[in-house]
Amino acid sequence: MIITALNLKKHDIKKIAELIYLVDHDTYLDVFKHKDKAISAIEELLKIKANIDGNKDDEDINNDTNSEYVLLKGNEIKGYLQISKGKSHNYFNEILFLLKKLPLSIAYGFIKIKLLDSFVLSKIKEDDFYLAELAIIPNEQNKGFGTFLLNETLKMAKEENFKRVVLDVKISNKNARKLYEKLGFKIFNKRTGRLFNKNRGMYNMEYNL
Ligand SMILES: CC(C)(COP(=O)(O)OP(=O)(O)OC[C@H]1O[C@@H](n2cnc3c(N)ncnc32)[C@H](O)[C@@H]1OP(=O)(O)O)[C@@H](O)C(=O)NCCC(=O)NCCS
């Protein structure tokens, strides 16, 4: 099994979009109204990113500039991981990017999600290593792939002298929380928000290195 930088010119964009959808499927469903619509909106966003930075060659997980990775077994994508090192969420810039690059109807959906996120995601400090997204393809879940990706993430954060690894998990996502707790993550905050008539709640979790 290897972890490699996501290369949008090479890896299957639809598969990656499906994995990203899985991370927060009920919010995507709520915003885009249909699973296929949500996945094609994510694909659209990925294609734009591919045109911006898809010219890079494969780089391994230690490369500083990359924050998205795939877990491969042979040539098959088994999982997706997104991390960010010491950077707090810049919702303003992210929203500006969406408005500039995407058709308004799709941009509006992602902006809604960003606004919802701003109420519930962890506040990241400079010496935090943030695990933003993690997903394993459905028929390969519960076979140890998630544990492998998490352990590699912890190793990388430790090697790079970060003080803690932070992640957010939906209050309703008991399976993921169980896994994080098994690996030593602890809840340090609970954030809930209500926007567009929807409640959203997250546990903010940390692992002190
Ligand atoms: C959460 C997720 C990343 C875990 O990866 P995974 O490869 O399935 O997990 P692993 O096989 O490494 O670990 C299994 C452990 O995770 C938990 N778990 C994962 N899937 C589970 C399931 N379907 N039922 C019960 N527990 C489950 C349990 O704690 C289990 O340990 P146990 O068997 O000792 O009880 C994966 O299930 C997934 O992609 N889910 C959908 C997307 C998602 O929720 N992402 C996390 C967002 S914060």
Short description:
It is built from 7 helices and 7 strands, in the order E-H-H-H-E-E-H-H-E-H-E-H-E-E. It is α+β, with helices and mostly antiparallel strands.
Write a structural description.
- It contains 7 helices and 7 strands; from the N terminus they run E-H-H-H-E-E-H-H-E-H-E-H-E-E.
- It has a single domain, classed as 3-Layer(aba) Sandwich (Aminopeptidase), CATH 3.40.630.30.
- The protein starts with a strand and ends with a strand.
- The chain is of the alpha+beta class and 209 residues long.
- The longest helix is centred in the first third of the chain and has 19 residues.
- The protein has a 7-stranded mixed sheet with strand order 1-2-3-4-5-7-6, with helices on both faces.
- 43% of the residues lie in helices and 27% in strands.
- Helix 1 packs across helix 3, helix 2 packs across helix 3 and helix 2 packs across helix 5.
- Helix 6 links the parallel strand 4 and strand 5.
- Bound molecules: coenzyme A.
- Coenzyme A (COA) binds next to helix 1, strand 4, helix 6 and helix 7.
Sum up the structure in keywords.
209 residues; 7 helices; Aminopeptidase; 27% strand; single chain; globular; 7-stranded mixed sheet; alpha+beta; binds coenzyme A
Q: How does the overall form come out from the CA principal axes?
A: globular
Which structural category fits the helices and strands? alpha+beta
Strand content: 25-35%
Work out the helicity level. Answer: 40-55%
Radius of gyration: 16 Å
Walk across the major sheet and give the strand order: 1-2-3-4-5-7-6
Write out the CATH superfamily name: Gcn5-related N-acetyltransferase (GNAT)
Bound molecules: coenzyme A
Looking at the structure, the CATH topology is: Aminopeptidase
CATH secondary-structure class: Alpha Beta
